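In keeping with the milestone schedule agreed at the kick-off meeting, the structural modelling team has produced records for the first pair of proteins. Each record is given below as a sequence line and a structure-token line. The laboratory manager (R.T.) confirmed that both were archived under the project's standard naming scheme.
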Amino acid sequence: MRMRDEFGAPERKFHRPETGLVLSEGSMIVGYASIFGRPDHGGDVVARNAYAASLEAMRLQGRRVKMLWQHDPAEVIGVWDEVHEDETGLWVKGRILTEIGRGREAAALIAAGAIDGLSIGYRTVRSERDAKGHRVLAEIELWEVSLVTFPMLPEARVAAKGEDHDELDWHDIAELFEDARQSLSGV
């Protein structure tokens, strides 16, 4: 059974790298933003190659995955120089821009061990249910990878699942991300 989010509402998955987010040379960070094959607390599993089409489309359009602070589109804090899938999951390597205030704060918080989480912002393009009832995310349109304060658990997890949000808020957020996507893609 294939399902599609008919509103294109933004989704987020938090992941706390088991080995911690690595900060080197004051601003370089590396880690996994997503791990394949592990059910999260919301019952979702990211399949291998789920990001492939999105990453290829971005490459062909000369775009990059955005590095945000706490999923805030107004708080770009760096650049992801490398984003790719490997056998484990979605691996990222980037630079926090310490020339900007929030970038300096983020680098200091990571260095102190106060921040160690990564979270993806995306839209589910294609998913299906497995025999255990998990939603298997087969294709994901990746928008951004954020540094976050509360990465829930070492496993990936949907951020707002189970929280009480009214529909208008989600539509407003979806519209904001869609406007940003169109702006970035020149549509």
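The second protein of the pair:
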Amino acid sequence: MTTNVSNNAALDGMYWDNTSKAADKNNGALTQSDFFALLTQQLAYQDPTKPVENDQMIAQMTNFTMADGIGQLNDNFKSLSASMTSNQALQASSLVGRSVLTQSDEIVFTGETLSRGNIVVDKPASLMQVRIENESGELVRSFSVENPKTGKNDFVWDGTDANDETVAAGSYKIKVEVSYTDGETASLPVFVYTPVGSVSMNGTGGGITLNLLGLGAVKLSDVLEVSYS
């Protein structure tokens, strides 16, 4: 497509060609060659009676070199970041099939192995009650612990309900209430072991995500412990 710029006979045949624009390989960024070209032009057009001082020229050349070096350093960091992400993904892939400990308000029963976890009691307590519910909020199984120890308390659920019948495999809600010896009550967070189904890479800077069976995705940084089963 062409666009005439004037109707003057002296300008006949002159036009702007919008289709032949050269591609900008550097996306408008100045390179070191551009900097030195500018420096050369500066020297060529300087006032002969007031030439550029040597220290000024050296300072400009140093700045050009530093700018180019910083650009190369950024490229190297991007390459290093991509390499580290790949290495993390390779290491995380070894977790597939193993169980990891994360904080969750759900616990998974696979139908093949026991469901395990732990609860941290932060001060002396007289009673700790654990409730396991289905997705509708109906009670499946509950158990209580008198005088739980201060610190980590491990627990195991064999996947049976109140009638000792095995429930269907899947994820269940878990809630913990504790009664302290000072008369206060509180809900406590629960930490559960869940099998890792797969590992995902979320791109450069996105980190590694573990896809847990029945619970979905969690960040690798959220994993507190790794178990063999």
